[in-house]
Amino acid sequence: MSESDWLMREAAAGDAAAFGVLVRQHQSKLRGFLLRMTRGNHALADDLAQETFLEAFRKIAQYGTGSFFGWLCAIAYSRYLMEARKRKLESLDEAAELADDAPEAESASIVRIDLEKAFARLVPAQRAALTMCFALGMSNEEAAAALEMPLGTLKSHVNRGREKLAALLEVPRIKAVS
Amino acid sequence: MNIDDFLSQLPSVADDGFSERVMGKVRTMARRRMVFTVASIAACVVVALLILPWRTTGAELGVIIPQIASSAALNLAAAAIVLTFLVERQFSRL
Questions:
Q1: Is domain A1-89 classified as CATH 1.10.1740.10?
Q2: Per the CB < 8 Å rule, is A27 touching B22?
Q3: Is A117 exposed, middle or buried (0-12, 13-18, 19+ CB in 10 A)?
Q4: Of A58, A90, B27, B91, which residue is the least packed, with the fewest Cβ within 10 Å?
């Protein structure tokens, strides 16, 4: 049995200290993930991370098998979506993304776009999929399970997100050449 | 920095007391849960004490328990259950 599994079992049995070890082990990665999701909003990312851990503690007896961090990400992503809908932080669907992709008058401002800003323009599902698969080192299957989407949809989000990121970063160069 | 480098990194976030804040809330939640559990059990015990026919039950148990204690088959079954439980506990710790 791995250390993480043992801690999970102890935490599920009501051992708050064991859960504390899990919190310390995973807080940085989870907050980093939420920071990406909230487009750099530290306060919101920390609130969501805290709610995620509290919900995890409440539901820890329901946790089955698989990666504990993947399970945390699933809770965090669903919390983020709920918050985004509540606060109307951003459009969550692909239709809105297409509108966002349309040629825009302030194209000169795109020159200043850096990777962080370009990433912030992706839809939440693409940001989550890219962060899980690249930065968090989760397998496609783990990420698909955490985001509660079919494997094909996840791969599509990863590919489309990466293409869009590249396209957003290519625009200034094209403009400069022409 | 290219796209792959960017995607493979996460913003570094220092703990800065975050874990302690979370654990403070977790401990409060655990305490509330414990109080609720104890209060529920106490309420059930009070109701049971008021409703159940304790005198009749006690008299019947006084007859049944000696019979159970002297039954070899029941003693073996109880030993098997206890042994299974102990072995399962030992294996789960490995």
A1: yes
A2: yes
A3: middle
A4: B91
Contact yes or no for B6 and A115 at CB 8 A: yes
Chain B CB contacts of A21 under 8 Å are none
Q: What is the ipTM of this complex?
A: 0.71
- CATH code matching the domain that covers A91-178, chosen among 3.20.20.140, 2.70.70.10, 3.10.20.30, 1.10.10.10: 1.10.10.10
The structure's pTM equals 0.71
In chain B, where the domains are located: 17-52, 59-94
For A58, nearest residue in chain B (alpha carbons): B29
Over 80: is that where the pLDDT of A4 sits? no
- For residue A77, give both structure tokens: 């992503």
What pLDDT sits at residue A115?
82
A14 contacts B30? CB cut-off 8 A: yes
Instruction: Using an 8 Å CB-CB cutoff, list chain A residues near B7.
Output: 130-131, 134-135, 162, 165
Please spell the DSSP secondary structure of A68-83, one letter per residue: HHHHHHHHHHHHHHHH
> Least CA distance to B14: which residue of chain A?
A28
